[in-house]
């Protein structure tokens, strides 16, 4: 995967990695050992999960010696939010247009009666076919 958005969504597809992100969001930075403590897997396995999150840009590790705390890189969530917001906005616009059409239909009694007759005919045809 080349783009960051794909790497971020792929990284978050795993529930353990989502849990690590949630813990870092609520608790702040932590050591790999602290992050690994609640899981029934090795520290190395958690380190591999953190490497995936780090490659996606979701977390970073601090500088310095033995203790390299892991911290969340919150700005990556802005990238995800913009992508999701774009499609949410487009869906809302489509629903608004549909609401407007339905409102026009409900105001026009002849169209409403025509739609109701059409629905009733369809139901009768289905009953006759079964």
Features:
single chain, 130 residues, mainly alpha, Arc Repressor Mutant, subunit A, two-stranded antiparallel sheet, 6 helices, 2 strands, 72% helix, WH_DNA-bd_sf, ArsR-like_HTH, HTH_ArsR_DNA-bd_dom
Compact summary:
Residues 106-130 are annotated as: Disordered. The protein has 130 residues and is mainly alpha-helical. It has helices at residues 4-11, 15-27, 32-36, 43-55, 75-107, 109-129; strands at residues 59-61, 70-72.
Topology, element by element:
Elements: H1 4-11, H2 15-27, H3 32-36, H4 43-55, E1 59-61, E2 70-72, H5 75-107, H6 109-129
Antiparallel strand pairs: 1-2
Helix pairs in contact: 2-4
Region (Disordered): 106-130
InterPro entries: ArsR-like_HTH, HTH_ArsR_DNA-bd_dom, WH-like_DNA-bd_sf, WH_DNA-bd_sf
Domain HTH arsR-type: 1-92
* CATH C-level label of the largest domain: Mainly Alpha
Helical segment count: 6
Name the poorly predicted regions: none
Helical residues, percent: over 70%
Order of helices and strands: HHHHEEHH
CATH topology of the largest domain: Arc Repressor Mutant, subunit A
Number of domains: 2
Number of strands: 2
The proportion of strand residues reads under 5%
**Main β-sheet, in a few words?**
2 strands, antiparallel
Supply the CATH architecture of the largest domain.
Orthogonal Bundle
What would you call the structural class?
Answer: mainly alpha
Instruction: State the CATH superfamily name of the largest domain.
Output: Winged helix-like DNA-binding domain superfamily/Winged helix DNA-binding domain
Give the spatial strand order of the biggest sheet. 1-2
Q: What gross morphology would you assign?
A: elongated
Computed CA radius of gyration, to the nearest angstrom: 26 Å
């Amino acid at each position: 995967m080349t783009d960051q958005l794909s790497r971020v969504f792929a990284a978050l597809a795993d529930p353990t990695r989502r849990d690590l992100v949630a813990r870092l969001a609520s608790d702040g930075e932590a050591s790999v050992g602290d992050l690994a403590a609640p899981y029934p897997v090795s520290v190395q396995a958690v380190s591999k999960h953190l490497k995936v999150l780090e490659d996606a840009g979701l977390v970073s590790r601090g500088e310095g010696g033995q203790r390299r705390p892991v911290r969340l890189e919150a700005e990556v969530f802005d990238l995800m939010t913009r992508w999701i917001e774009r499609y949410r906005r487009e869906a809302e616009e489509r629903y608004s247009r549909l609401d407007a059409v339905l409102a026009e239909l409900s105001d026009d009694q002849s169209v409403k009666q025509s739609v109701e007759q059409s629905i009733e005919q369809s139901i009768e045809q289905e009953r006759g076919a079964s």
